[in-house]
Amino acid sequence: MEKVAYLGPKATFCDLAATKLFDNSERVAYGTIPECIDAAGKNEVDFAVVPLENALEGSVNITMDYLIHEVRVPIVAEFSSPIRQHLMMHPDNAGRIGEIERIYSHSHAIAQCHKYLHGELKGVRCENTTSTAFAAQYVSKHPEEVTAAIANEMAAREYGLTIVKPDIHDYAHNHTRFVVLSHKPIGERLDGLVRKGEKTTVMVMLPADHAGALHQVLSAFSWRKLNLSKIESRPLKTGLGNYFFIIDIDQLMDDILLPGAIAEMEALGCKVNVMGSYYSY
Ligand SMILES: O=C(O)C(=O)C[C@]1(C(=O)O)C=C[C@@H](O)C=C1
């Protein structure tokens, strides 16, 4: 049976995404996002499902940076899912919401609920955990502390917690983009799901700082009428002011247009890496 890595423990948002995508596979929980990427990089698993971007909080930098700087594993699919964050407590403490001493969750989940936390639970310390489900598991094991976790409904069920305040994310349209990483092609595995689009993600390093370099890169796409859905800069980690760009193009790799744009960028002195060419679900 094929193996799929996800950020564990059971009932994280990554677990929900992996279950939706690979229902008939063996899902293997890893403690951190880099561990999931390593597992796919070393072929310990066939696929890894990791978060890439959230609609409220932006990119999951650890995923992006690890893929660029440490372990290159191609993106073979993308899955976008609605995200609902709930405040949950141990059932023994569920009536004591006003006495909460600490709130645990993944940093991205805490960030998605800032307005609520600032408005309703001002002054309560928030502590980051490796995932939302890890936070729920911790709260379930420590009824002696009046603490809460921010996590999803499946985590509340899995770890026997009571949802004391549902839907505490700050904006209704909360979505996260997950990517599937693998050294093998995805083939027909996801054909049962509805395809929403197609993308190619490239990483572009500009030549030494000069006027108009980014403009020239963007024009390689624009005059070919290649639509971009995202452009983001991240530090190269070689010193302040040095960046690379991650660009999402709204089409699969073809024989002419994308190779032409890449050749043009290379002729300008850019270093270009294709991170993946894949369908969005
Ligand atoms: O902690 C989890 O449950 C995760 O799957 C991680 C993660 C993230 O890193 O963005 C995934 C989706 C949500 O946006 C919040 C947390």
Describe how the helices and strands are arranged.
Blueprint lengths: L2 E5 L5 H9 L4 E5 L2 H9 L5 E8 L3 E2 L1 H10 L4 E8 L3 E4 L12 E4 L1 H5 L2 H7 L4 E4 L3 H10 L5 E5 L1 H6 L3 E4 L9 E7 L15 E9 L7 H10 L5 E8 L7 E7 L7 H11 L3 E10 L1
Parallel strand pairs: 1-2, 1-3, 5-15, 7-8, 7-9
Antiparallel strand pairs: 3-4, 3-11, 5-11, 6-9, 6-10, 12-14, 12-15, 13-14
How would you sum up this structure, described in words?
- By secondary structure, the protein is of the alpha/beta class.
- The chain has 3 domains: 3-83 and 174-181, Periplasmic binding protein-like II (D-Maltodextrin-Binding Protein, domain 2, 3-Layer(aba) Sandwich); 86-165, Periplasmic binding protein-like II (D-Maltodextrin-Binding Protein, domain 2); 197-280, 2-Layer Sandwich (Alpha-Beta Plaits).
- It is built from 9 helices and 15 strands.
- The chain has helices spanning 13-21, 33-41, 61-70, 107-111, 114-120, 132-141, 153-158, 213-222, 257-267; strands at residues 3-7, 26-30, 47-54, 58-59, 75-82, 86-89, 102-105, 125-128, 147-151, 162-165, 175-181, 197-205, 228-235, 243-249, 271-280.
- Strands 1, 2, 3, 4, 5, 11, 12, 13, 14 and 15 form a 10-stranded mixed β-sheet that branches. Strands 8-7-9-6-10 form a 5-stranded mixed β-sheet.
- α8 runs antiparallel to α9 (257-267).
- The model has no long low-confidence stretch (mean pLDDT 96).
- The structure holds prephenic acid (PRE).
- Prephenic acid binds at residues 7, 12-14, 51, 54, 60, 83, 106, 108-109, 131-133, 176.
- Pfam families: PDT.
